[in-house]
């Protein structure tokens, strides 16, 4: 009787909510099982302890309770344009996840097997070997900050010496034997989403121009491999943009945007870095709201309510620091190179597009499309070229003056 009722209910759900799914959980002898009932089509991407799912259909639960012994947090967002649901499931690090789908009825199953001490040890031994190799090269946080500050100071001094010259010199090596740095450039907006519009300009066009120019600088340099999230005027959902960065294993993710304000007097360049606690200033708050507009109906549910508020994850906090370090290089070159508009400052905000686990990410706002002087510059190809060149130079220095020093001990400049 129970089975019959179950089948009847399943059919009912299938008929009325073909594209809806629900989440249920259960404790198992091996650990924990999470089932997404009603899921047929999905994409799955594991990134360390974050399991990312892109699911066709709408999520129906009003709240989920997950056992904190197995799962740290779950974040569910709906992309209003693709109608897809994006789920970030953060599992504890002693879990071995298995993801598979079953049919009749359609469901997606996530089995989290608790690794016993022996298994955990063998896994962590593997990791330790890798980590040891890495950590031999890594110097302490304080030392690396000192190195960074030294380099930035010397660059700033160079900048004031070079004030008279109009362009900056870039030495491009003919060949490069090391591992290429992977740069993912994300021209904001596109397609039916023009971004900000004013003074006869559309943000999406400016963003793409800068991105293509930056791409061509990077392509001429054998030390880099470059990808764009879009190369033409098309719409890409925010979460797909971050997925591209993850899939390409980006070493740096740069999202390019153009600022706008109701106040036509606001002008200048800003760089934003990820801050999980949200915007740090009123302006950053406004920019954050505008750039996040394409992701609506964000539901946040967490087994531990603090998880959404505090930066618990080491990978993400490392990402934040490195995003900021890159921003410091970009600041120097943008200040030096752009004489006609002012580089304002580095700010931080909570941008959906910057949520790329383990990838240093920044969002650059070129200038204000709503300011007459800035708009004149944004319409000028030479200005956009200089802007892209400044970012290119910052990328070179970030990786080859700073990172290679910090990550190879004892080779500091004297
Ligand atoms: Zn934008």
Automatic annotation (TrEMBL):
Residues 242-396 form the MurNAc-LAA domain. Its EC number is 3.5.1.28. It comes from the Bacteria. Keywords: Hydrolase. It holds the Pfam family Amidase_3. InterPro entries: MurNAc-LAA_cat, N-acetylmuramoyl_amidase_3. Transmembrane segments: none annotated. One of its GO terms (biological process) is peptidoglycan catabolic process. GO terms for molecular function: N-acetylmuramoyl-L-alanine amidase activity. GO terms for cellular component: outer membrane-bounded periplasmic space. Coiled coil: none annotated. The keyword Hydrolase applies. It catalyses: Hydrolyzes the link between N-acetylmuramoyl residues and L-amino acid residues in certain cell-wall glycopeptides. The keyword Hydrolase applies. This is N-acetylmuramoyl-L-alanine amidase. The lineage of its organism: Bacteria, Pseudomonadati, Aquificota, Aquificia, Aquificales.
